[in-house]
Design a protein that fits this description.
The structure is a homodimer. By secondary structure, chain A is an alpha+beta fold. Chain A has a 7-stranded mixed sheet. A 4-stranded mixed sheet of chain A has the order 2-7-5-6. Strand 1 of chain A pairs antiparallel with strand 2 of chain B, so a sheet runs across the interface.
Amino acid sequence: MADRILLAHGSGGKATLDLLREVFYPEFGLTAAEAGDAAVLRAAAGRLAITTDSFVITPLFFPGGDIGKLAFCGTVNDLAAVGAEPVAITAAFIIEEGLEVEVLKKIAKSLGEMARATGIPVVAGDTKVVEKGKADGLFITTTGLGIVPEDIDYNPARIKPGDVLLVSGTIGDHGWCIMALREGIDVGTPVTSDCRPLHRLVGRLAPLRGAVRTVRDATRGGLGAVLNEWALQSGATMIIREAKIPVREEVRGGCRLLGLDPLYLANEGKMVVAVAPEKAEEALTLLREDPDGKDAAIIGEVAAGPARVVMVTEWGTERIVPLPRGEIVPRIC
Amino acid sequence: MADRILLAHGSGGKATLDLLREVFYPEFGLTAAEAGDAAVLRAAAGRLAITTDSFVITPLFFPGGDIGKLAFCGTVNDLAAVGAEPVAITAAFIIEEGLEVEVLKKIAKSLGEMARATGIPVVAGDTKVVEKGKADGLFITTTGLGIVPEDIDYNPARIKPGDVLLVSGTIGDHGWCIMALREGIDVGTPVTSDCRPLHRLVGRLAPLRGAVRTVRDATRGGLGAVLNEWALQSGATMIIREAKIPVREEVRGGCRLLGLDPLYLANEGKMVVAVAPEKAEEALTLLREDPDGKDAAIIGEVAAGPARVVMVTEWGTERIVPLPRGEIVPRIC
């Protein structure tokens, strides 16, 4: 096989089949005999969750992950956010002509490793090749399918005044990591992306049932975007306390340097949770028992009032946290 | 809203929400309140089919369709090919900065119209924006979810010697249409892409049950690629008769002019079917009763023997039809 991707690899003919056999099938545990245009799987009756995301991150590799791992985790986390148990994912690759086959292999391997580690298989896929200069190395679109248990409903419209807001760990790690990598910034200890699957962490909250109002992974647009969407969807005010929000020192310092706000930086391994007040401490304990939630914290509460987000600063003043505007860190996921 | 797509439209913040509200939600019948990271739907117990495809066609608009209609039909047809009844689709958009918002609206509308016309809703989506020069206008990745009735199994391994091969209409229309458009070729009547959803057409074959061995939509790589894959998957010889294969005169003439083979040209509205011999005529009648199958034809049969495709030419000689090699028409879907 060639060292670099050719247009022929996207033809649907011999070269495509070679690419699938050489790069994708071994990593995803598929064979040519099984591979059809659609995968067929058996699922229990019930509510299905489906979610899709394109990943266009640059660079393709970063401390703590790469576009393959990111595409897997991002989609699994979107399923987790509706309380679904992930069943399977699909992966569609848009490849720029000239990409090194070794690069593609590393990324397929990383995606395949996540699938094996979590037991969530990649069941269908697609490969397209576009001419050099018509894409940027590689874009991956993953779609996830999951089952939502009958007693789980994490619709954000369920948020009520009095609810408590939690975050599962430090915010802004992924966004800062990519930013620092691109800009060649070094502020003490390098920050690693928090990219990881969170379905097990969210699953820990299932015993609290109806007390868990809603869950969201705070990716593009960060914690600030999630809380603003919740405010719009519930018609309530989200109050957060700056002093309670866990932010790594390096991220805080870096943001100050560049005039960024950690509230708007992307996360790829953090969940925001709204819980009924009487179960807030229990939720916090459940999250902290998990290595992926060890830095979980209660960061605020929901109040009756206009649909907006208010932050009580470290100095006790209040400021509105608007929906992020403009581009914060482009191509972050 | 701006006339052209900005990087900010991919930020996950205010501009992204504006884009969703202005361009996508109205066409897909969604509201901001409902829109979460994953859609939840109720499905009957049974076998689920899932399929994904990225669409990178150039140009974005062509006679008979555009990338939006194509992305919808391509995915619905992949579901149809495993005998599934389509339930829902998702659509992820990778947009190049600078794309005219009007162009995006036309494409979203076209996709939305297909969803309304077929009753197959778009239930989840994603929007990413990459810098000018890092994509080519627009790429769409659609994923389809369907239910496969318990008595349907269209696995190509079920193909047996003696089976009859059918095609649901003229081949090469989509491939030739795009080729002629790109090259500015005019050979008499212009050919329109055959882009259309085929789940109803395939559904007509359901009463034949086990007699229908397998079904495939002959997209990238054309009829030649499908038959070669079937040969590999079943270990049998696919014999086709050139004189029986329906090809439009304009396509035949154009291919002769450019040295192309219609067998390898992409279709976006044609199914290839393998049927037990005793039900072949019935299958042909069922297909022809549908406007989308009016030119259906029996084109050959399956023989015991090595895994390969043999064409009996119009002159009675035989030639091997190999898997297509190299690029035929790049960026065809």
